[in-house]
Write a structure and sequence with these properties.
globular, Four Helix Bundle (Hemerythrin (Met), subunit A), mainly alpha
Amino acid sequence: MFLAVPVVMSLLQEEFGAALVWFAVAGFSDGLDGFLAKQFGWQSRLGSILDPLADKLLLVCAFTALTWLALIPLWLLIAVLARDLLIVVGGVIFHYTLGRFEMQPSRMSKVNTFMQIVFVLAVVFYHGDFAFTPWLIGALVYIVFATTVLSGIDYLWIWGRRAINHIQLNR
């Protein structure tokens, strides 16, 4: 979570090489944390909430900084924020109306997160004067938009089914 600050500061100062280094450190620490949690059974409910929250914080901050710099379109940031808000609000509503809410990212959500990471890295590489083709950035904009929308729909579908099942079991 704390690495979002140096990533954003580097982006806003247009120090894209430094931003890539901080992004890599964040990715490595996230991977190491996940490995250690699984390897030694250090999994907890708090960890299951904080880990994806940290990932989302880093990505949303990166998207926001890149939008501020006019390197990605505002409408894409709005779509990403709307999906994340849908997940948070949906999770809270589910938890307080139907019962305990378990954070379980769907496959589509994992695809979306992966594509968002690839997109942020591609934009940073491109604007950091690394060899990268601009048409790929344009294609990734629409791929990220599509996976964002599909992921939001997927969560609505999954939670809707769970809510219906819960209501039917408790009649």
